[in-house]
């Protein structure tokens, strides 16, 4: 059962988002695609470039972004700090149960992945839950990598050269 977006504010708390980002080193991305044109691939690539250990979870792929892909969270052989979900909302309760089972530190649900039952499963086990937010966007916002055009220019100035 997918809930409407009403009541999502509790899953989008900026302080919770910042705590999760700063406590995370390893990220299992459930639904990570090997297709470079998919949002999940772009997010995984971005996270790897920013020093996170990215663990693909996709039963249809052998390797993604140069990393071994696992069929399920239960098959991942390393500790996971954060489970990032790129799947349909109705898959979230099962993914949340697996995240709890493997001892993940938090559950992050990308844009449109909204399921109150899945969130409740994770919360009842003590996992922070972020829902309907993009991990890449929030990382860029809170770690200071966001520029007014949406990318990091490596310049520290308020003057926009070349713009008249």
Question: Could you write a compact summary of the structure shown?
Answer:
With 164 residues, this protein is of the alpha/beta class. Helices cover 30% and strands 15% of the residues.
Determine the strand fraction and express it as a percent band: 15-25%
How many β-strand stretches?
7
Q: Which term fits the overall shape?
A: globular
Largest sheet: 5 strands, parallel
Counting H and I runs of at least 4 residues, what is the number of helices? Answer: 5
Keywords summarizing the entry:
single chain; 164 residues; alpha/beta; five-stranded parallel beta sheet; two-stranded antiparallel ribbon; 7 strands; 30% helix; CoA-bd
Task: Explain what you see.
The strands form 2 sheets. A 5-stranded parallel sheet has the order 2-1-5-6-7, with helices on both faces. The chain contains 5 helices and 7 strands; from the N terminus they run H-E-H-E-E-E-E-H-E-H-E-H. It has helices at 14-23, 39-49, 92-101, 116-124, 135-143, and strands at residues 26-30, 53-57, 63-64, 67-68, 82-85, 106-109, 129-131. Helices cover 30% and strands 15% of the residues. By secondary structure, the chain is an alpha/beta fold. Strand 6 (106-109), helix 4 and strand 7 form a beta-alpha-beta unit. The protein has one domain: 3-Layer(aba) Sandwich (Rossmann fold). Helix 3 runs parallel beside helix 4 (116-124). InterPro entries: CoA-bd, NAD(P)-bd_dom_sf. This is CoA-binding protein. Residues 20-113 form the CoA-binding domain. Pfam families: CoA_binding_2.
């Amino acid at each position: 059962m997918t809930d409407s977006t009403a009541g999502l504010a509790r899953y989008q708390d900026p302080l919770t988002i910042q705590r999760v980002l700063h406590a995370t080193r390893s990220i299992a991305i459930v639904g990570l695609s090997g297709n470079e044109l998919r949002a999940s691939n772009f997010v995984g690539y971005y996270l790897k470039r920013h020093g996170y250990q990215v663990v693909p979870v996709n039963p249809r792929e052998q390797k993604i972004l140069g990393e071994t892909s696992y069929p399920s969270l239960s098959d991942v052989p390393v500790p996971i700090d954060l489970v990032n979900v790129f799947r349909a909302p109705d898959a979230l309760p099962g993914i949340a149960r697996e995240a709890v089972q493997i001892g993940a530190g938090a559950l992050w649900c990308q844009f449109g992945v909204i399921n109150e039952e899945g969130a409740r499963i994770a919360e009842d086990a003590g996992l922070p839950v972020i829902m309907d937010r993009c991990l890449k966007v929030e990382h860029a916002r809170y770690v200071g990598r966001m520029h007014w055009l949406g990318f990091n220019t490596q310049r520290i100035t308020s003057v926009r050269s070349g713009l008249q």
